[in-house]
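Sorry to interrupt, but I need a hand with the structure work. Please put the record directly below this note.
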Amino acid sequence: MSHREWLDQVKEEIIDPDFPIIDPHHHLWPAPGRTQGIPKDQYYLLKDLWEDTSSGHNLVKTVFVECGQGYYDKGPEALKPVGETEFVVGVAKESISDPSKAQISAIVSHANMMLGDSVGEVLEAHIDKGEGLFKGIRHAGGWDDSEEVRNSHSNPIQHIYLDDMFQKGIEQLEARNLTFDSWHYHNQIKDLTKLAKNFPSLVIIHDHFGGPLGIGKYEGQREGIFKKWKEDITELAECPNVYSKLGGMAMPINGWDWHKADRPATSDELVSAQKAYYLHTIKVFGTERCMFESNFPVDKQSISYPVLWNALKKIALGFSTKEKEDLFFNTAKKVYSL
């Protein structure tokens, strides 16, 4: 069966369908996917995004996050990622054609922070091509010495957040009041905490709970990893300039193996497996520094869009209306100036 047919095996009644949502983390693939394990024949364009965001929940706005697509083929290597910003601006303009559907309202692009001071030129180019939508940078830092764990698509070095050249690049980001999305694995959270303390004026968004791994040498270690993860997340939350994206743990690297099952995950299965991560993060960060995310289409390998948001709404059931507004809308609106 096709992946669409596989996903359609799980249908659920939409919970609170009118509640407004900003999805602060999704990707677009205009070419054969080549990052995060996406199959080479899978595309994800505006029609695909709208198919998901129009599947029952009230998605109002979205934030595109870099995924190594649409780069310029020619010109200086450092400036090639600016092509992704230009590409997504075009898609965002296309989304205006139907205001009844979710609008791509912000762009988080890539610039190589290892360029140090000279990355300023790249940031200025993103600003120029971004037409007001460009909000910040993600330089993925996921690194592990295990052969079973794929390093991030930006080919980071070990302890990249602590590198002098990387931090000089971050200085350029901070000077322009741009945001920094971080993506790494659970054993790198302490490095991000050090970076956050070094740059207290920089708005940092911590993606996907810090990537708790569950494959390779980490398989079967979930309980021990969770205990250490809780300690590291609590320490990270002490940095008031750090915000947390809650989601992105239905990827194959997280080890739940839903992508291998006969049918995708249900909302109850996701809640049962992952609720503790959500509740602890919300406890230490507060709802005003947390935002739910989809991480689509990467997490689409394991769960459908409407079922995922049902799971997030079930996790938020015990919170007040104000707290839910933070988690689903207000925090993302504030962080990305939407």
Observations:
- The radius of gyration is 19 Å.
- The chain has one domain: 3-335.
- DSSP finds ten helices and eight strands in the chain.
